[in-house]
Please model this.
Amino acid sequence: MDGATGSTRRQLAIRALAIMSAVAAVIHFAVSGEHFQEYWAFGVFMLAVAWLQLTWAIGIVVRPTRRLLVLGGILNGGVVAVYLVTRTVGDVIGPTPQAVEPVGFGDGFCTACEVVIVVGVLVLLARPLLEPVSRSALWSGSAAVGAAAMVLLSLALVDGGPEMVMTMSAGAPAASASQQISLATSSPAGPVTMPDASMQMAAPGMKMASGPCTTTPTAAQRAATVRLVNTTWAAVKKYQSLAAAEAAGFRALTPAGKAVVHYINVANYRATALGGPVIDPSAPQSLVYANTPHGAVLAAVMYIESPLSNSTPPDPGGCLTQWHVHTNLCFARLRVVAIMNSTCPAGSVNRVTQPMMHIWFVPIPGGPTAIDATDAQVVRAAEQVASPHNGKA
Model:
């Protein structure tokens, strides 16, 4: 066993590193379920890392050998490298290999813990740190590190929202309602359930048009939602053929070739702006396609409120038909050219979109009227749906 028999700075450092490793393990356990939904390998990776970090945290306190220190440095250095790749290059594997993951407080804090572990391991390998400390200093120092880590871990779990804490906040009533609602539809997306705003916002830069809605829908609203889904699917399933959609005037609104591509029909959008109905299954403003290994698959219709309207968009299904807006898109005319970082690229401007509502045709979590889903979830769902042969959207 390394170190002296009494309390030393080395023992204090080892306890601090063990706390960091346990915290990182908790975060990886918390996000593993969401990652399994995106791609099985992501979930397996998160669980494997979590168990290894937890095991290392226990082992380094019980038996802090040099070999175990080296293994901890390699493990956490590798995890940090994976994090940097997924935040700069993309996921590399899975349904959306080029998708760059967003940076949040929770994953950032987890990575900071792992960096501290790597640095701490290098220090301990280079220096013995056998200077004595009092037993009270050892315990008080360990307690201080533990308390600070628990506070930051709590903030990370709360900031992580539904990805980390699936039953917290406003999502709880809606989740309960969704268990009570299952309305059969003709859409390949399956039955309508109660959308859960706190669990279906796919990315930063999105928000509900009028805040979360959790009121249980009436019988009339349920029937209206089923009619909306069925009539929308009946009217637009011809656009499963990308060629048919392009012949009808739909053009890519977001960059082509991405995992998920939005198409807009300028004539339909203009008709809505001139006072036509916002929800018109025969003339939707936008279509959503998912690029799968087998070609583009029609994933959804997206109804868009008129840019000249200041009124609340129609909600025939009450909380079953909810609207969202985007706040971080950069537009050049009617095309989305980028996601705003601090500013938009030259020649484009940022503006908050008009309210939008999806009607889905692929089985994403939440059903046909789900508020949103990640690109990985959309692509994975699209792979489960029969579709005519299309090229890439």
User: Anything to note?
Assistant: The radius of gyration is 25 Å.
